[in-house]
Specification:
about 220 residues; 12 helices
């Protein structure tokens, strides 16, 4: 039974991570696909909930909120997500509701609200991969605000949590970009060189790393001339 629950949890995590990666591109279709997939596995999201009345109520409310979000009734969906936070604060649904709210804030350019919620989730989320992804998003927010020291700290924190390659490679490139913005070109190149040594580095990350390294080399050359 434990093995089945682990499999279910992995499936849930993959779907949420797909959503997080799609937010930075702000593609509404990707958002709707994600929510639809979440609905298909709704029963697995709360695999360790008991059958208490309150927990059944919050499951129903979460399903309703997700349906509203799919139907683009965003205001009503947000009302339901907030209701989950206020009336069912001790259920597992709270973390998922907060994640939805944070993504909705980002899509509506409410960056300060999103930042506060993501900061909380970066501490409270139990899933390491989801938590590292939230830290990476916080780093992206710092980049938008030209706060590179802040961004570097978040990206490094994301890297320190786990060793899940496809996400860590993305975080590593973000570290190198931040060093570039800070004009710490040697540090950026060292990070990229280590990344490019990986035999299992995916093609898209390899291209991004090589392109970034070429850009930095040009900056170094211009600096010395």
């Amino acid at each position: 039974m434990s093995e089945n629950n682990d499999i279910k949890q992995d499936l849930v995590r993959e779907k949420i991570l797909s959503f997080i990666l799609s937010v930075k591109e702000k593609k509404q279709t990707a958002l709707q696909v994600f929510v639809a997939l979440i609905l298909l596995i709704l029963g697995t999201l709360y695999y360790n909930d008991s059958n208490s009345l309150k927990q059944r109520e919050v499951k129903t409310l979460m399903g309703q909120a997700q349906n509203l979000y799919i139907d683009s009734q965003f205001d009503n969906a947000v009302d339901d997500f907030n209701k989950i936070l206020n009336e069912y604060p001790k259920t597992e649904s709270v973390q998922l509701a907060k994640l939805y709210l944070a993504m909705d804030y980002i899509n509506n350019d409410l960056k300060d609200d999103a930042f506060l919620l993501l900061e909380e989730l970066s501490v409270t989320l139990k899933d390491d991969i989801l938590r590292s992804s939230v830290l990476n998003m916080l780093g992206n927010n710092c980049i938008d605000n030209n706060d590179y020291e802040c961004a570097l700290n978040y990206y490094k924190s994301a890297l320190s949590i786990h060793n899940y390659n496809s996400f860590n490679d993305d975080y590593t490139i973000n570290v190198a970009k931040t060093y570039k913005y800070m004009k710490q070109y040697e540090s950026a190149i060292n990070v990229l060189d280590e990344l490019l040594k990986k035999d299992d580095l995916r093609f898209n990350f390899k291209n991004d790393a090589e392109q970034l390294k070429a850009e930095i080399n040009v900056l170094v050359l211009n600096k010395t001339n």
